[in-house]
Design a protein that fits this description.
The complex is a heterodimer. Chain A is of the alpha/beta class. Chain A has ten helices and 19 strands. The longest helix of chain B has 23 residues, at about 390-410. The chains are: A alpha/beta, B alpha/beta.
Chain lengths: ~400, ~500
Amino acid sequence: MANFNISALNRAKFVSMVAKRLRVISKSSDAPVKALSTYHANELADALHPHVQFLTVKEIIEHSPDMKSFLLAPDVSRGTKSLAWFSAGQYLSIALEVDGQTLCRPYSIASSPRDALQGIYRITVKRVGGGLASGFMLDNWTIGTKVIASAPLGEFTYEPLRDAKTVVGIAGGSGITPFRAFAKAITEGDEDFRLILLYGSRTMADAVFSDEIAEMAEHCDKIQIVNVLSEGKKVKGAESGFITAKLIQKYAPQGEDYSIFLCGPQAMYDFADKEIATLGIRGKFVRHELFGEYFHPEKNADYTGDKDEVYNITVRMAGEETVISCKGDTTLLRAMEAAGIPAPSDCRSGRCGWCHSQLLSGDVYVPESVDGRRMADKMYGYIHPCCSFPLSDIVIDVPPMPGM
Amino acid sequence: MNTYDVIVVGAGNGGLVAATEAAKAGYRTLLLEKHNLPGGCATSFVRGRFEFEPSLHELCSESSSPKLDGISTLFRDLGVDVPLVYEDTLFRAIVKGEDGYDVTLKAGKEPFLDSMEAAVPGCRESVKAFLDLIEPIDEAQIDMNENGLNPIRLFKDHADFLRVAAHSADEVMNALGVPEKAQHLLNTYWGYLGVPTDELNALHYLSMITCYIYGHPSMPHYRSHELSLALIKKFQEYGGEVRYNSEVTRFLYNGKHECIGVVAGGKVLYAKKIISNVIPNNVFNRSDDRHISPRSRKLANARKLGMSVSTVYLGLDCTMQELGVNDYSVFVMSDKVPRKQYENRRDFGMYIVNCLNKVLPDCTPEGTSTLFFTVPFFPGDLPADLTPQDYKKFKNALAEKYIRDYEKVMGISIVPHIEEISIATPVTFARYLGTPDGTIYGYATEDWDNIIARTAMKDADYDTANLYFCGGHYIRGDGYPSGYITGHMAATDVIQALKEGK
């Protein structure tokens, strides 16, 4: 065997390492370091995920007294030069100041990504019974109203490596909005899948965007829309009743996999999920948009609290403390908003994690269906106030909204 | 109220340890974090019924010598108790092509040498000689820890330390006559440090691989988020205060150019000592230039940014057995030579696929499994003409390219089982970490800026009074342990200075 030995290496080279390093540094420029925004990856990150988007209401389209579309344009005067690109199906979290409360509400973007390049996001707002935010927007927003929005967010998007080539969309009521974006993005070549849209409304008069999507379908064979009307007389070309398993099978492609995307009110999910369960479709092919706010925890079998009891919630934020009250059937987030505490939130459905807070003492109830926490969060006492209901007096540490 | 003994900027691995040690020592400590979570990349994220590990491939929790602190010692000293699950295989290394190989190496010194000997008959002695060099290195480090750096002593008593420290990994292996194929196998881990072994410092590389070989790779049960929350818990128990969503936008100095505080969340906060887990480039960009020495700016401008990555996280609706995956960590390479892998990095040069279910069978719901792809990216690797509107197509194409390749290499079918998919690129890391070009650890430990030279020149390099650094950009280079250990180093320096009233 050859005589190899570490002694063959010259230890004196060690001394030259420092000299070499000094030489490289001394030859370098002492100019200020490059700004972060000049790096390509950071430039793209800033364009795709701005911290905030300042917008103004450019146009208002009234669908009914209780439903309007707002076309939002960048507010250059406040520093937003262009709108962030997004994936069809994503939403904006809109920040509102209503009666001294700071609220954030998620709204699906109903316009297409190409529209954003032209400087337009469209959101469609429907009055929800007792809805503070929707009522405020419908009654107060006029052309020129200044709006603060998040970057586009959410995971209700088409993923070619995950989803089937055909998507059966199930939309209920204002749940049509992300499907308008999907359909338009398909016609514009930014999404590549076949969309068969089953759109549930009470009557044709309630079926907002139906005609528009039908017109897109006329020019694009990848899109098909079927209205499913639950009330009134039979309408030609439309289905009557609800979106059942049988109806899905009637329109779904035969002999090939298809995905089902659902967006609508909780009652629609409850009904449709039972129907879909009978179809034997693999779980990966069924995707829901956010469930939205959780009400009535007392209806769950595992709820151990008292919905009418009022608890003291001590909220710590950036070193300051406020004591507020919260009823057993109210989320901690709603209680903080009602007390005027600007707590962060985006999805309000337990998914996005933006309201992630530390529970310092006390107990909360988190409905399992909206418990999107990490496993270690549960071990170490972290909660999402947007879907946590108090079971006792509570001390909670809530991160401030950035920049506040 | 707005005055602290210590302010730590950034709750990454380094910042978490630095803050916890300062608080434990009794100093009034504030930890500022721009996100609403601690950990930086040491976190997790939930998609559907899966919770993904975003960054940790494996911890090497032990040091190569019982006399030197590994991170398990560091955690124990802090009272942080996170159970780790140990893996007895290091990795499976697959080099594609006719003259390629497919070798699985075991952890533990003897099992490792046995598996090397089985793969390359006759290599055992030289490979053992290479690994054994860690002993004189550790002795020299212990001597320096106890007696300080004494060049004459080093020359007299620690010749082998100097030899290893002054050469590349390839040079040292060649000197020891390690057979070519054994060298290639030993070099498999180069990507963890982001510099090919013909340039990578031998001491740096040897220290890392011996930690893995001797100490076994390990993982926490609940992703690295568990490590971060455990550290925060201890920090708070020691009286520390953490503020999230509180990005530091300015560093403040006095007339003597001493750092005296920061601005975060619109508040001015003062401290005797500031520890930055944030990369110097970003600190300088948030400081008035006249307070930053020309030497500091020259150094920052001279340095090459280190590696970033693209990662693909898959939640699959079948078990790893049904998928046909049996390994935790698989390195797939187009060529045996690290430099070639680096050069071919945009075309399958080297990528890593991890299946956490091998280590933690119940890390995903019953009947499911997860795969985690890592593809190296270096500054400039993103297509120059990539626009926001092309970005999603770009990252989908990238993910598909590597998933399809892995399907072919392993003879398995992955795509039909994808239930959840999330794809990160340097753009994602640029957004989340806020580092230039999304670099993960900071600066490349290229030849002139290797960790030995960094350590030797530490005092000259970090010349702003009261401002200390920790993290992958500091003197120990890439890796989870470096983050934690440099946090310990910064805290040690700060505590000593505060004790001495400096």
